[in-house]
Amino acid sequence: MKQLSTKVTSNAHGQDSSYFLGWEEYEKNPYNEIKNPNGIIQMGLAENQLCFDLIETWLAKNPDAAGLKKDGQSIFKELALFQDYHGLPEFKKALAEFMEEIRGNRVTFDPSKIVLAAGSTSANETLMFCLAEPGDAFLLPTPYYPGFDRDLKWRTGAEIVPIHCSSSNGFQITESALQQAYQQAQKLDLKVKGVLVTNPSNPLGTMLTRRELNLLVDFISSKNIHLISDEIYSGTVFGFEQFVSVMDVLKDKNLENSEVSKRVHVVYSLSKDLGLPGFRVGAIYSNDEMVVSAATKMSSFGLVSSQTQYLLSALLSDKKFTSTYLNENQKRLKIRQKQLVSGLEAAGVTCLKSNAGLFCWVDMRHLLDTNTFEAELELWKKIVYEVKLNISPGSSCHCTEPGWFRVCFANMSEDTLDLAMKRLKEYVESTDSRRVISKSSHERIKSLRKRTVSNWVFRVSWTDRVPDER
Amino acid sequence: MVSFATEKKQDRNLLSRIASGDGHGENSSYFDGWKAYEENPFHPIDRPDGVIQMGLAENQLCGDLMRKWVLKHPEASICTSEGVNRFSDIAIFQDYHGLPEFRQAVAKFMEKTRNNKVRFDPDRIVMSGGATGAHETVAFCLANPGDGFLVPTPYYPGFDRDLRWRTGVNLVPVTCHSSDGFKITVEALEAAYENARKSNISVKGLLVTNPSNPLGTTLDRECLKSLVNFTNDKGIHLIADEIYAATTFGQSEFISVAEVIEEIEDCNRDLIHIVYSLSKDMGLPGLRVGIVYSYNDRVVQIARKMSSFGLVSSQTQHLIAKMLSDEDFVDEFIRESKLRLAARHAEITTGLDGLGIGWLKAKAGLFLWMDLRNLLKTATFDSETELWRVIVHQVKLNVSPGGSFHCHEPGWFRVCFANMDHKTMETALERIRVFTSQLEEETKPMVSTTMMAKKKKCWQSNLRLSFSDTRRFDDGFFSPHSPVPPSPLVRAQT
């Protein structure tokens, strides 16, 4: 239709991808313990539903914040009129301190360098508008969050060039992969404006190692380009390892206040750590004044509701709450992740060793008929329609190897997760017995076990990727 | 070793043109008015000689009703003990369709503010980050970079940013004249369309604000029909920004484009879109509730996907759903708001009448379009700017000069009246009185009194609205002094 823009008529919003189709199937037949026990269990939604009780308890103890009051007086009118794109100062201060706390108070965040946005969806798009012209490219390691295709490219006209990562080294970013991606962009006549990483990674659930972070900082330094670190899952790190932010690395390399530091930007949000995606709270943190200035003006297109800013400024200013929350959140995520990993193991399925995020990166390569993406899609359809689990196929995350799936664990109850794992186990066992194979079924199971064992061995040998593991 | 100059150049290349350019519009000299206010904001006790903010189109007259309702309905908050049982459901709700109850309540509110003359389908309601976000989204949906929208002048300065900055779309002015009350004529539309064609700009639509900002006028049925027919004939879109729909006062009625399309046979509804918001009618700009309402299914679909970039906080959706579902409250609010606006409008216009200052007859809005053409030294925008600086720095009133609204004729100023209390309004009028009497003193020897009287008469007769209801409210609520210095663009938005 010529009367509409090409943004409308094209599919660049990315929503025809399987990532979203799985959601649609779920919506038609959603699992409910009582009303629809045979429905599809949603495991494609990276939500953190484990700690609402902590927030609700806090609300009960803090009637002023809960009731939009200050010293017992309603400030609703004042909040209703507050639309300053600089944001509520108390909120930005509290947010900066929260970000510091998540990073063990090893680095500082200056509230005046924070730009609020309507979720990290908006924050990432805004950064693209600030840093790239239509046709410019950003390099992203694969696999990556499918939403980036929309957030980074759709309305901005920017391009994404993948940095191919493989399972051979646990999907870590290597120097050669970076260089290859850069050269690929040049071959395509695309000007590279920067690299964007998600750390901890979605969909992998792993944290970038210091080696990778150093590599990235050196790379952008030498190429004079930007580095965007989307640290939306920084508060979901469980286990013994601490989260290493790109800000830690800048500090350790004595690059704070350097020219390079002006090209490093952090994106954050409260959607994952606090489990509040509905509130639309995103943030850009940049050391570049011009970026802060431009992004602040752009935030007019998606400011955070003043009542939400007020509530959260009170919540995050309560240090007792934030430290209790972060600790408890970690604990619960760890337990839940363990439950998923054990359940998968019982089904003869392994996953990438991880210690962050709200999901696991699951290896189902051995369940593919052929080592192709067609086979992956076939398997995915079976899992959605027959096993009734909505999980996300690796191809939707631009993974270069077929057979990997992202499976979420923090958006359901223990019982639901149990049931999901039971269903998977049943499916795998029935598939094994049904499979038409060239070898005998006995040998098949043997080789499956062997592969499982070798995967175990493979995983265990990755301990060097986590420097501070105790 | 890189020189400072080269370094700066490198800096600029590191950012996009959008980020390093002036497309945001905030480098305009008109922001001097905001700066003057921010440096010295009026406060009746702390700063009685400060600058009075009359450049802010906010509706602060019914905040007390709002506050009362919120206190009486703790269940509308998901944080109070009465409402916390909904906390987790609402906190995780990020579906870009929006809460069904929110859409239903907003649709109902839109119907009420249009006197229930039309029905709005909740499934066509798409959220956005305020009307600011809505306009940008509509531009992204209807036009490609380089295309153009026709916009009648004078128009809200924020459009330059909202419709053009990140979209690359052009705005083509449709010139309107004071000689016919700034009406939008078909001749002017055709002329603008032709100008665009000559400049190789493909016109994709016409954007009108109805009621108008800055004029405060409403489009009558005939005019609306002619706009629908014009755009339909040309196969271009009609976008009606109806953000001030419920600010009509007195006996005046607001006619929405939604009503008019029902009366036009064979109207191509795929070309009709409405932008709305709760920022003005309800005085809730901080809550960021913008709406795109399109009769084009594909636009609804895509705008909804784009709304991911500016969804309304679910906490706010829940509050608004509860508030707007309370029909008794809504009816009372709309009624009371109109009465208070009418009274405030009467107060300022009576004051200006007494001083012989003209203003455009209007039926809506949170502002007046004031005529100071006779105070200009020459009929030029330079003169207008000079006069404006005097008003800001000497009279200490931050009003908005017509040039900032792309008005074709110098000498007009937008003056807001709904963002201050009664005492502040009195102070402002007093300052204007002092100013005009000073001017009269200065010009007395040069102009005879009969000439002055004649002059006053000629622009008064066409423009004055006689208003018998001079009911006054002693609101007694807080001064315009904000505890936090606001961003200039935030104020300029309105």
Automatic annotation (TrEMBL), chain A:
<protein>
    <recommendedName>
        <fullName>1-aminocyclopropane-1-carboxylate synthase</fullName>
        <ecNumber>4.4.1.14</ecNumber>
    </recommendedName>
</protein>
<keyword id="KW-0266">Ethylene biosynthesis</keyword>
<dbReference type="InterPro" id="IPR050478">
    <property type="entry name" value="Ethylene_sulfur-biosynth"/>
</dbReference>
<keyword id="KW-0292">Fruit ripening</keyword>
<dbReference type="GO" id="GO:0008483">
    <property type="term" value="F:transaminase activity"/>
</dbReference>
<dbReference type="InterPro" id="IPR004839">
    <property type="entry name" value="Aminotransferase_I/II_large"/>
</dbReference>
<dbReference type="GO" id="GO:0030170">
    <property type="term" value="F:pyridoxal phosphate binding"/>
</dbReference>
<dbReference type="InterPro" id="IPR004838">
    <property type="entry name" value="NHTrfase_class1_PyrdxlP-BS"/>
</dbReference>
<keyword id="KW-0663">Pyridoxal phosphate</keyword>
<dbReference type="GO" id="GO:0009835">
    <property type="term" value="P:fruit ripening"/>
</dbReference>
<keyword id="KW-0456">Lyase</keyword>
<dbReference type="InterPro" id="IPR015424">
    <property type="entry name" value="PyrdxlP-dep_Trfase"/>
</dbReference>
<comment type="similarity">
    <text>Belongs to the class-I pyridoxal-phosphate-dependent aminotransferase family.</text>
</comment>
<dbReference type="Pfam" id="PF00155">
    <property type="entry name" value="Aminotran_1_2"/>
</dbReference>
<dbReference type="GO" id="GO:0016847">
    <property type="term" value="F:1-aminocyclopropane-1-carboxylate synthase activity"/>
</dbReference>
<feature type="domain" description="Aminotransferase class I/classII large">
    <location>
        <begin position="41"/>
        <end position="424"/>
    </location>
</feature>
<keyword id="KW-0949">S-adenosyl-L-methionine</keyword>
<dbReference type="InterPro" id="IPR015422">
    <property type="entry name" value="PyrdxlP-dep_Trfase_small"/>
</dbReference>
<dbReference type="InterPro" id="IPR015421">
    <property type="entry name" value="PyrdxlP-dep_Trfase_major"/>
</dbReference>
<comment type="pathway">
    <text>Alkene biosynthesis; ethylene biosynthesis via S-adenosyl-L-methionine; ethylene from S-adenosyl-L-methionine: step 1/2.</text>
</comment>
<comment type="function">
    <text>1-aminocyclopropane-1-carboxylate synthase (ACS) enzymes catalyze the conversion of S-adenosyl-L-methionine (SAM) into 1-aminocyclopropane-1-carboxylate (ACC), a direct precursor of ethylene.</text>
</comment>
<dbReference type="GO" id="GO:0009693">
    <property type="term" value="P:ethylene biosynthetic process"/>
</dbReference>
From TrEMBL, chain B:
<keyword id="KW-0292">Fruit ripening</keyword>
<dbReference type="GO" id="GO:0030170">
    <property type="term" value="F:pyridoxal phosphate binding"/>
</dbReference>
<dbReference type="GO" id="GO:0008483">
    <property type="term" value="F:transaminase activity"/>
</dbReference>
<dbReference type="InterPro" id="IPR015424">
    <property type="entry name" value="PyrdxlP-dep_Trfase"/>
</dbReference>
<comment type="pathway">
    <text>Alkene biosynthesis; ethylene biosynthesis via S-adenosyl-L-methionine; ethylene from S-adenosyl-L-methionine: step 1/2.</text>
</comment>
<protein>
    <recommendedName>
        <fullName>1-aminocyclopropane-1-carboxylate synthase</fullName>
        <ecNumber>4.4.1.14</ecNumber>
    </recommendedName>
</protein>
<keyword id="KW-0456">Lyase</keyword>
<dbReference type="GO" id="GO:0009693">
    <property type="term" value="P:ethylene biosynthetic process"/>
</dbReference>
<keyword id="KW-0663">Pyridoxal phosphate</keyword>
<dbReference type="GO" id="GO:0009835">
    <property type="term" value="P:fruit ripening"/>
</dbReference>
<keyword id="KW-0266">Ethylene biosynthesis</keyword>
<dbReference type="InterPro" id="IPR015422">
    <property type="entry name" value="PyrdxlP-dep_Trfase_small"/>
</dbReference>
<dbReference type="InterPro" id="IPR004839">
    <property type="entry name" value="Aminotransferase_I/II_large"/>
</dbReference>
<feature type="domain" description="Aminotransferase class I/classII large">
    <location>
        <begin position="52"/>
        <end position="432"/>
    </location>
</feature>
<comment type="similarity">
    <text>Belongs to the class-I pyridoxal-phosphate-dependent aminotransferase family.</text>
</comment>
<dbReference type="InterPro" id="IPR004838">
    <property type="entry name" value="NHTrfase_class1_PyrdxlP-BS"/>
</dbReference>
<dbReference type="Pfam" id="PF00155">
    <property type="entry name" value="Aminotran_1_2"/>
</dbReference>
<dbReference type="GO" id="GO:0016847">
    <property type="term" value="F:1-aminocyclopropane-1-carboxylate synthase activity"/>
</dbReference>
<dbReference type="InterPro" id="IPR015421">
    <property type="entry name" value="PyrdxlP-dep_Trfase_major"/>
</dbReference>
<dbReference type="InterPro" id="IPR050478">
    <property type="entry name" value="Ethylene_sulfur-biosynth"/>
</dbReference>
<keyword id="KW-0949">S-adenosyl-L-methionine</keyword>
